[in-house]
Fold these 3 entries.
Entry 1:
Amino acid sequence: MFDVIVIGGGAAGFYGAIHMARTNSKLKIGIFERGKNVLSKVKVSGGGRCNVTHAEFLPHELIKNYPRGEKELLGPFHRHATADTMAFFQDGGISLKVEEDGRVFPESDSSQTIIDFFLSEAEKLNIKIFKNYQAKEFAFIENDCLWQVTTKNKHYYAKKLLLATGSNTRIWKQLEQMGHTIIDPVPSLFTFNSDDPRIKGLQGVSAQAHVAVMPKEQYNTNIGIELKSNIAKEPALVSEGPVLITHWGLSGPAILKLSAWGANLLHDHRYNFRIIVNWTPEYSTASMFEFLKHVKEVEPKKTVLKGQAVEVPKRLWGKLVKAAAIDSSMRWADTPNEKLKNLAKQLTACSFKIHGKSTFKDEFVTAGGVDLREINFKTFESRILPNLYFAGEVINVDAITGGFNFQNAWTGAYIAARAIATDD
């Protein structure tokens, strides 16, 4: 018999259990993890360094990083957010550092530092950890006002249940059968697949760019025949930031933001769509054409290939020059304006056909889960079932990459823990 059973031995499960035990030392708490290892997602986060949160300390700014959950998280972030998360780890003896892009990591650059801390705290607080304990079923027994959790061959009972199970379709199905509404999950963080020859062989090249996902009716059009045509239709989604060329296509923060904000839209399009990349965001196609004509006047004897006119990676410049049908030996002086127009379009309105996606590393994130209307965000308790609480990705909240998904897990787990531990 437990006071609380936590299903899910990940970030949210441990954070919640620790805060429960700290708030009320009399609670008997058990964490049930279906796998042989706990905290596996923490292990791979941030390339094995564990991106614990993001250094955005204002709740109204922090919520802007959540495509789903933006409105609902404002109140919770006023109660427990980035500064509280950082204090939690720092008070536990873990030194943290903030990188230039705002991501927060342990100074050790090792996720094992976080894992060891969680395990040490759990042991110190007498939290029981059960590995290879898959919760096959859970049910509320009304007469006894208890939750029954069934594993492979045994029933366990608890007064309260915290679900921190992440994107677990089996758990979602059970919740649906018990009356909850589940928003169908779709991938959220992923990269765009493209075999376009302009990026072939450029893996590892990164550039600051503006990226637009074009509306469906525009996917099969020839974008950019005229200088003004690239603004004829408003894009469905836009993002700006680093774009990384990979073996399979395009990745990097700008692409991952689009995948998060457009998770449902891109899923509806079966991941076949067109994007327009401006490799020089400070220029429009028209202003780039004027600039290239100026370069033609001041650098007449240099070849276009070697006389690079703008700050983009050198290998990318070479590919775009070739795509504009400019010969490698052609000098600026000999380049006709029509080809300069082509180059301007390649630099500012570079159209790519996307055909599929690839999961972002091991950090699989989904949009979907328990309908947010069925959760009390003052306690993270179910509005449908008594003494049932949620934390993390089990609910329909997800974020862009950069530590924001973990912050959602920490915040929900903390608020649920406080509600559980202080409830008479």
Note: DSSP finds 13 helices and 21 strands in the chain.
Entry 2:
Amino acid sequence: MADDFEGLQRLANLLEGYSENAGSANILRAQQAGAEYFCGVMRSKTSPRGRSREHMLDSITYEQDVQNTETVVGWGKFYGRMVESGHRAGGWAKAGKTVMPSPHMKPEFSKQKDQIIGRMVAVLKG
């Protein structure tokens, strides 16, 4: 089965080719440009009108890792990953119940990967 994030490997290969000429600061800017685009697309999937609480998709964000070498995209809500991948419910009332996945990020990444990579390459080319 093909990995839903196969575009990341393609991207890693592209970045490797640019790394000697682009410098780590430009690579980091390229990662941020791709992450910013993807997060914007994900947040645009919902409309907060008429809701009193933030929707889970509104919480998608990105940050730099501790070593400042890569950009990480993720959920701002603790349950985002559980919704994306599914999980087994806990507690005495629902013990052992399997909650099926309801993916949001993986399918959208698959649709948007060419645009994400294109934005990153544009930053690297300057």
Note: The two ends are 36 Å apart (CA to CA).
Entry 3:
Amino acid sequence: YATLIYYNNVSGGSPNNTAEFAYDENGNYNTYYGPRTAKLQLPSTTQWSNVSLSNIKRNIIDEQGQVRVTNFSYEGYAARLLTIVELKDACSGDTNLNINCQYLLENTGYSNNNFKGYYLETVYSATPGMSRAIESSTYNVGGPPVKFGNGYGVRPTIEVEKAKISY
């Protein structure tokens, strides 16, 4: 599969680069639950009927690769959030977006927009109450609290079988 990242953040599955959302507004600072609030903004399988996830159940990991949530469900959604592993794969093993992956900052504060960035699926290993996010002001990966929007949005990631891509 190829992992493709949408160029806009979304709200209710539609492009919106100004709406901010929590990663998990019902989360707390002691336990990991995954992006329960953020996933609600992703395009549904009805909205994006021409794509689907290879697996709707996913293990949510921290940046050290430790599984923090097992079988998190994206059922009913045609997209998911990008992981830090995929980010590093796309950026030559780095999370410094200024050097290797400026395209991931499209339609954020980096490109004349006041929006900070968008969430990754990955959570912060040191603190359960923190998520991981693309940070447009530092061109890096930040760690905002899970409960508050703080200027972060939701950006869909889809999976496409490589055999279906014309080169």
Note: The longest helix spans residues 84-90.
